[in-house]
Amino acid sequence: MLDELEISLLESDVAAEVADSIKEDLKGRLVGTSVDKHVIGEHVRESLIGIISDLFDGAGAVDLLERIRAKKDDPYIIVFVGINGTGKTTSVAKIAHMLRDSKLSVVLAAADTFRAGAIEQLREHAKRLNLKIVAQNYGSDPAAVARDAVLYARSHGVDCVLVDTAGRMQTSKNLMEQIEKIIRVVQPDLKIFVGDSLAGNDTVNQAGEFHEHIKFDCSILTKNDADARGGAALSIVKTTSTPVIYVGTGQEYGDIRPFSKETFIETVFGSEGVQGTEAAKSGGAPPAGEIPETVRETEVAVVNSGSSVEEEEMEANKRREQKTDAQAAKEREQEEMEANKRREQEQAAEQSPHDGKEHPKGGDPFDGIDTKDIEAYLELHDTPPPETDDEAERAASKIKSWISEGRQGKEAKGSWKGRFRR
């Protein structure tokens, strides 16, 4: 029975180590209790739901709007962290949209001065939302950008500063040092980790690394509309003891909603799980000393030893091994797909035109190109900002060729009609 509940958690994309930890907590809660054998399954299930509910409750809650309104003398500063591709910048825009609709003034800080197109991406969001953005050139000190945004907010009476930071792999020492510097300089009121609901265990590893370095306060999980399981939320809460405050549910600015533990429990255990939350909180079945005599004759004790428990544990280990083998096969298949995709991208990059100059791996392909030339070229050709490294390489090559040819057609258009696509 315990094994079946553990598999339910694993199938909901809960990290394996988190599922094991919750299983041990469940054993500790059950040992020594006495339950009618006819309802023992329901009692175990309600106990598990109670443990999960307590985890979410123990992580606390963050009422973002209330916190911002409570800080009246100074702007409320929020720093967003996370790796590339999780939807971090889009989440910044969604939060900005929510605050604007709540009659709060906002300024955006484009502190991602590393990724090609990052500044243009945030500037396009600011344009659509009619918000002020503070930005500098690529390669500028991100902490200086964040500081300038805070100074602007203070001098103009702005309620909130949202700082978008560079996203690279959580194992990048330079990234962590950069973010730590931003935090030292601006002293944010809130640090939000943005993770991908679809990334499974990798999201948990990312959260653990970021929390170890900067002790973020809460999380936002993106792409929740494409993930019916939601186990990443439980894993992050268990690993970092911080709450998940919002989940992204689509591509529009309004597609963000507060995280609900009831929705999570219903997803994992069905609609009966929500009803069982209250029963689990109230203690489920009564203690042995309070069981009626009519029930006492058929009660069973949940103990930590005995042949039945040993057999159940052996069966649990067997099923867990089967589950692990299936997961390993799935992971190998996913790795092969990603490797093929990378090879295709590399081949496409080799076939695309370039200026004959090689850029160091991980470097900025726009290095040496004036930001005004980048913006002018994008305006002239109705080209959206690049979203991937390959697109950035190709765009940089075309811009350099355009510059070398005398910037032909530069005055053909007087305004940017770029169409940002996310």
TrEMBL record:
Q: How does it sit in the membrane?
A: Peripheral membrane protein
For this protein, the Enzyme Commission number is 3.6.5.4
The GO biological-process annotations, alphabetized, read as: SRP-dependent cotranslational protein targeting to membrane
Q: Output the SMART domains linked to this UniProt entry.
A: AAA (SM00382), SRP54 (SM00962)
Instruction: Report the domain of life of the source organism.
Output: Archaea
Query: Care to name a GO molecular-function term for this sequence?
Result: GTPase activity
Q: Which Pfam families match?
A: SRP54 (PF00448), SRP54_N (PF02881)
The record's top EC class is: hydrolase
The reaction(s) this protein catalyses: GTP + H2O = GDP + phosphate + H(+)
Q: Keywords, A to Z?
A: Cell membrane, Cytoplasm, GTP-binding, Hydrolase, Membrane, Nucleotide-binding, Receptor
Give its localization: Cell membrane; Cytoplasm
For the keyword Nucleotidyltransferase, the answer is: no
Annotated region Disordered: where? 276-422
Protein residues bound to GTP: 82-89, 164-168, 222-225
Q: Name one GO cellular component term.
A: cytoplasm
Where in this chain does the record put each SRP54-type proteins GTP-binding domain?
A: 243-256
Primary role? Involved in targeting and insertion of nascent membrane proteins into the cytoplasmic membrane. Acts as a receptor for the complex formed by the signal recognition particle (SRP) and the ribosome-nascent chain (RNC).
Q: Give the family per the record.
A: Belongs to the GTP-binding SRP family. FtsY subfamily.
User: What protein is this chain from?
Assistant: Signal recognition particle receptor FtsY
**Natural source organism:** Cenarchaeum symbiosum (strain A)
Taxonomically, what lineage is the organism?
Archaea, Nitrososphaerota, Candidatus Cenarchaeales, Candidatus Cenarchaeaceae, Candidatus Cenarchaeum
